[in-house]
Specification:
single chain, extended, mainly alpha
Amino acid sequence: MQYDKIKKRPVQFLSITGLNLEDFNYLLPHFKTEWEEYNDYFTLEGKPRQRRTFARTDTVLPKACDKLLFLLVYLKTNPLQEHHAASFGMTQSQANLLIHLLSGLLRKTLKRLGELPERNEFRVMHIIKSCQDVLIDGVERPIQRPQASDLQTACYSGKKNS
C-alpha cells in the first residue's frame, strides 16, 4: 500500500486513516520535519548515526507520506502487526520497529502543532475562562474502589460488568 495510489480514492483514504486528504496534507510537512530531524542523527534502532544518511528508493516506505500513511492506518484500524506488515510488504519485526518509532514522532508533531489533548487541569480552567462557548469531550476513567462501605455506595452503580 502506497500513498500515491491510495490518495486517488478519497473515500477509502478517509476510512482507513481517519483523515481526509486536506488534513493529511496539512499534517505531512510537519511530520516530515520531525522524521528528517530524527533520521539525521539516529538510526531506526535509536542509535546515534556514525555517518550521514541518504535517501534510498529501495526501502519499504521510501517517502514520509508513506510512513505517515503506514502509521495512521495502523492507529485507525488496529490490525495485527503481522497483517499490517503483510499489507505494506515488510516483516512483523520491521512493522513493530516502525510503529513504535513513528508513533513517537507523530506525538511530537501533534504536540508541536498544539493538537494533543490537554492534561493540565489548571491550563484547561484558564482556557475555559477565556472562551464563551466550550464543548468538553470527556472520557470516563476507572477509579480505585474505596474500602469503606459508605464510600463504596457513592462509587458503585450496583450493576455488574460482564
